[in-house]
């Protein structure tokens, strides 16, 4: 087991990575996930950019809500030409090991600023972790960040106002941490023509959330195939995932049985 990964399990027996989301900077996050070949944000980039582009040219269409944004990985990949392996290399390099979190954030702001290739995309970040959101803001990845838990409470007035400016919602690993309650609270403030790109691990169902989206006039389709999310931490996590997908009537052959969490991509758009 990777040292940064706690031995505790979530309700679905998925390894608990919650400790890496409360650090003051992304080094523990990438230190834990890079050895497991974490990759789902990379798979999300072309899908999310395509939805942003299809939404139109006005500023709202170009504003993305990154749900469960953590340290701004999706924002970095959506707004710059930097790819995920380069981020992993940056945050696990010995050269940054001795920097303070504030010094690293300042260096990141300059680093990412030099690689922006989609300045038209604005990213609003939402995550329950104040340290992660705060870092992503200081690094210049988020135009605005909100550390709020919509599983527990309605959005603040400030977040509600920001949601009204969003054209596309992206979520690459939050389902399981957040559920129908969060989506219900978001949709109360998001525009009616919002688009959603949501990657969901196959160990989790998405039907309840789809029901919430349906009630708001959004039509959801699942893209063909699956993408790898990361390798399993250990045999126990793999066995639990295989059992979970089988319980959902899915076949783990070549996917969870081969040692990887797999995710499905759901795209939601306004209905006719």
Number of β-strand runs: 8
Q: What is the averaged pLDDT score? A: 93
Task: Provide a count of the helices.
Answer: 10
| CATH hierarchy: architecture | 3-Layer(aba) Sandwich
Kindly report the CATH topology: Rossmann fold
Strand content: 15-25%
CATH uppermost class = Alpha Beta
Oligomer: single chain
Radius of gyration: 18 Å
Shape: globular
Please, could you describe this protein's structure?
This protein has 272 residues and is an alpha/beta fold. It has one domain (18-270): Vaccinia Virus protein VP39 (Rossmann fold), CATH 3.40.50. Helices cover 36% and strands 17% of the residues. It has 10 helices and 8 strands. The chain has helices at residues 27-33, 40-55, 73-79, 84-92, 101-113, 130-138, 157-163, 180-187, 207-215, 235-247, and strands spanning 63-67, 122-127, 144-147, 168-171, 195-201, 218-222, 227-231, 260-270. Strands 1, 2, 3, 4, 5, 6, 7 and 8 form an 8-stranded mixed β-sheet that branches. Helix 1 (27-33) packs across helix 4 (84-92), helix 2 packs across helix 3 (73-79) and helix 8 (180-187) packs parallel to helix 9. The radius of gyration is 18 Å and the shape is globular. The chain starts with 26 loop residues before the first helix and ends with a strand. Mean pLDDT is 93; it is low at 1-11.
